[in-house]
Each structure stands twice: as C-alpha cells, then as structure tokens.
Structure prediction request, 715 residues.
Amino acid sequence: MPNRVSLTGAAAVSQAMRQINPDVVAAYPITPQTPVVEYYAQYVADGLVDTCMIPVESEHSAMSAVVGSAAAGARTMTATAANGLALMVEIVYIAASYRLPIVMPIVNRALSGPINIHCDHSDAMLVRDSGWIQLMAEDHQEAYDMTIMATKIAEHEDVLLPVMVNFDGFITSHGVDVFEMLDDEVVKEFVGEWVPKYPLLNTEKPITHGSLDLFDWYFEHHRQQEEAMEQAYKNLPAVFEAFEKLSGRNYDFLDLYKTEDADHVMIVMNSTASTAKFVIDELREQGLKVGLVKPRVFTPFPKKELKAALDGKQSVVVLDRAMSFGKEAPLYSLVKSALYDAVSRPQLGSFVYGLGGRDTTPEQLKEAFSYAVEGKLSLDKQLYLGLRD
Amino acid sequence: MPVNIKQLVEYVEKNDWPFTQGHRLCPGCNAPLAAKWATLTAKALGYEPVVGASTGCLEVSTTIYPFSSWNIPYIHNAFENVAATMTGAETAYRSLLNRGKVKNDKVKFIAFGGDGGTYDIGLQSLSGAIERGHDFVYILYDNEGYMNTGNQRSGSTPTGADSTTEPVGKAISGKLQLKKSILDIIAGHEGVYAASAVTSEPLDFMKKMEKALEFKGPAFISILAPCVRFWRIPESSGPAATKLAVETKYWPLWEYEKGVYTVTKKPKNFKPVKEYITSLGRFNKLMKRPDANEVLEELQTYVDAKWERLLALEEISKGKPLRNKI
Prediction:
C-alpha cells in the first residue's frame, strides 16, 4: 500500500535510493546534499540495504569511482551539489560519453564565488551540455518519483545515459513535506535488474573502455551521444506512463498549470513553481488569465512541447535561477529559440530571480506577471526579481 | 613459492600475452615492460587481472580506437583518477560477488600510472584509495617527468635534470628541488604493501608483484622505468640505467609492509651517484654549468643519508608491524 509520509526532501530521495538498493554508492558530503548521503550511510550501517558504499575523499573521486563501478557493471549512484558538481565536471562528461547509466541527485545550490550554500540553479546549468539527462523536481514527491524513474530511463537499452535529478537546496532538501511513498516491492519490480551489455568485469570477453578517440572517431561517438539523447526524448513518455500505472501520478515533459485559457504564462523550474501556482490562483481570482509551464525535463529540452503550450499566448515570462554572464539566461534562451517558428509568437521577457538563495516571494512573481499583463516585456532586456537597486 | 620463469613461459606458450604487441610506445620505452610483467605475473598465478590506466604514455599508446593492446579488461578514465576509478571497479566487484551476480572470485585490480599521474595530479585520489583499504595493486611506472607531452617537469623529476618547464639555463640550473620520496608517502598510509623496483630486475619486480597481488588490501610498486627519449640515452639502455641507479643508491630496492621495512637488495659496493647522473643525457646541460659539482655533492649526501635511514628503519621495524589489519 502506498504510504503517505512526512519527511525532508533529502530523506525522500534517500528513501527512493534505499528502495532501488543500488550495487554501489560513492559519495562525498557537501551542503545541502549531506543528509542524502548521511541517511544512505545509515541504511547501509543498519543493514537495510546491501549496497557497498565508498566514502570517497572528494567529489572528483566520487564521480571517478562511480564511472569505474558503473563500467564494471554495477548499478551505481552518487549525489552532490554546487561546488561538488563543479569539481566533478571533468568526469561528469566522461560518464556520459562512456554511456554509463548512473543516477545522481543534485541538490541545487549556488556555485562559488563568492561562496554561498543556498539554492539556485547555477550548478545544474554548469553541466547542461555534459550529455546527462536532467530532470527537475518541484517538491518532495517529484524528487522521490524522479529518482525512481531516472533509474529506468538511464538503463533503457536505447538510451544508456546518466541522469541527474535536480531539486532545490534547503527549500526542498531540508524542508519537511508530505509525499506518497511506494511499497519497496513495487519499486524493486519497477526498476528491475540491471544487466549491463559490456561490463568491465567480464573477463571472458575483455573490453577496452575509454580508448583514445582521435579525429577519426571522436566526432561519430559524439553524434551517437546525441542519438542517445534523442532516444531518451522518445522513451521518456513510456517511462512516465509505466510509472503512472503504479503510482497514479501523471508525469510529462511539462507540468501545465492553468495554461489552456491563459493569456500570460510563466515558465519556472523546481520549487518556485509551487509559489507560482499560488500566485496564479490569486491572480485568477482577480480575473487575470495567467498560467504556468514548469519543465520537468531540462535535458533533453522539450522544445516541441513548449512551442505547443506557448504558441498563440499573449506573453510569456521566463524565470531563471541562474545567469549566463554576457548571454541570455539559460532557460530563457532555450524558450526563445523554441518559439522562433511559432505561428503566433508571444511577447517574451526574461527575469533572473533567487540567486544564492534570495527569497522568492509571491510579490516578486506578481511583479513579473505585471510586466506581462501591462505589455511591458522587453525581448532583449534581462530583468531581475528581488534584487536591490 | 614465488612465480618462476617456467610458469611464465608455460603461460605464454598456451595463451596470448595479456598485454600484447602493436602498441605505439617508443622503441626502447620501459613502460610496457612493467605492464607486461605485471599482467603476466597475475595471469600466470591464475588471477584475472582487470586493468586501469591513468592518462599518460602507456594509455595513449596502447588504446588508440579502434585498437587495443589489452587482452584483458581495461579502463581509462582521466589523468588524476585511476586510483579512484579502480576503487569503484573493485567495490562493484565486491558488491556483485556478494549479490551473486558475478561468480569469478579470481579477479584482481591493477592500476597503472606514470609519475605525473601519481606524484602530482593523482596523489589525492591514490591516497584516498589506499586509506580506504581497497584491494588493488597500483603500479607507478616512474620515468621522472611528463614524457607523454614532451618532457615537462614533475614532482619526480630529479634535481638538475633538463625539462621544458624548468630548463637548465644560464641563470638557473634546471629543477632545484629533490624529487619526492613517493614510497615514503605511500608507506605513511601504513596499511599498505609498498615496494620499489627497476626494469633491470624483472624477477625481483615479479616477486614483488606476486606479494602485491596476494596482499589483502592496497599495494603499490614504483618501478623506475626510463623514458629513453627524454633521458637522452640510447634506445637499448633503459634497464642498464636502472641497474646503475640501484648500484649508486639513487634508487634503493626496498619494500614496506604494514610498518615493516625490508631492504631487498644490498649491494656490497656502491658506485658514486655521479656515475649514474653523467650516464644520462638529460643532465648534460647541468654538467656544463660551474655549479654541477655542488649539485652532485648534494645528491651524494642525500642518497647516502637515505640509504643509512633505510637500513636503520629495517633494523628498528624488524618483526614489529604497526598494524595487523589494513
């Protein structure tokens, strides 16, 4: 029987990991990911799982060990945040190019510098081109569900790509919320057994992993990674559907909230979407036709779905919790590009919000909507919410 | 009983070499000797070696896609992380064995790294892997510089050697520092088997390799393996150079096991270290400098002191391991 429980987001994700019971977890603690690792270490210590855990000496070694383990043929997970992810980056790219189905929760936190431990999405955006699938979770339920779905999509034989499950540092990771947990057996059956095709540990059919790949093959191999990402895009709906069958929870690339008749649409990822839904309800009571599009999948970017949801709208405001200095904010630039060939292009505006954990209030979101409603959006001007003058 | 020539010959008569021909290492390179001997020893003893390599000469020259010189499972990840990569593979093996998903209980993990990937950029991941007690053998093929990329200085490059990033010039006599004592650093982890070796003594190396394979926990062998190209010596003289390194106390042969030091070769007479230095073309520029003798004298004092210290350590640690477990 599904069980409604009240836990922090970090505990929710560690519970999903416990139910998956991967062969190996290698991790290094970093705020605000630490409780994920701590909970998992306790499960190991208490014998609730028989995962072999490697308490590595850095995130670089965490990702390196995870690559060694996944290549060996083990179902392998790790988790990190911000600077930890930055330290890993070299190997993050390697993990994707070796086509290793690793699952890594990312507890989104601002990248240094200056050092800051609170939420933004600069860490996720740092690795947007690394070849990993990137899922974006609004709350505890999504973070828990996506960790389970991530395992399924990563190991799909036409995909074989690593997956990051992003959820907001402190807001989701340390906040307590109610969510529904599946039974252990249901999760176990859903993720099934991982049977690797070319494990390093097959001594009878030895494979060379990580060859030197020069000008004569590197390009083709990168093209194959792109093909895998296309396959991820094609196969994600089936994973969503299978998961809905056992959980009753509907997933798609986009979470559409009151968009159907909306004139003005906000696009925002992760926990701020909850605030946006609250604001939308309030504004609708005032007679404003507003709605929300929340991407649940950032990579592969659901361009087609976004265009379908936004084509013909009066205006779209895109909220980014990260900057791309000297260029448009990452989510905004992708949304703008997705609407290039829309039949009826909406007015567009870019808002950067919540950097370094800056509190994002309903008033700030209303302010963003007011630009849309009053027709004051500017296509090429980046605006800021909650920023001191 | 240590592995013997008969066993090795029998193995290669019936089987492919685990590390085979066709690689693109330079003629006279000593790195493939270490790779060949280490993997052959493992195979001849009935183990199934799984190899990892850090970025470097051995890696780039043996696995140019779609070719490979490795008849055994092999993984390369990056420059600084072969030890961490192997801890992942080794842990995966333990987990899968425990869960009954892998049956073969003869698997052994062997990591290969050059001095750049070991003394410098990979030291942290190596230290972490040893501290955690993973069961693997790390082979350092030490050619005392970043030779893959054309002779840049490493933490292993000796004083006065000419390198492109610390060249011997008119004002400065090349590298000013002594090389790190890597084996002492590894020994400092205590729960480890560590040994030095040279390419002039294959049987000594294989004997140590066997000990390393059978040691329950992390093991480390540093083998002095000349880069004939950037040591500026004839292609055929790599092993001769390492023989002289032992005879001049430049590279003593010793091992360490959980606190106990053993000097594995005690030459009756030593040659002056000058003989070793002047036999290598990489010191030619140094030798033309007015301060050459100063550098040589300093090195002689150093190797003498190190040798005395080693004998003393052997004496005081005899039968007194620091640890009983890793």
Observations:
- Residues 292-317 of chain B form the longest helix (26 residues).
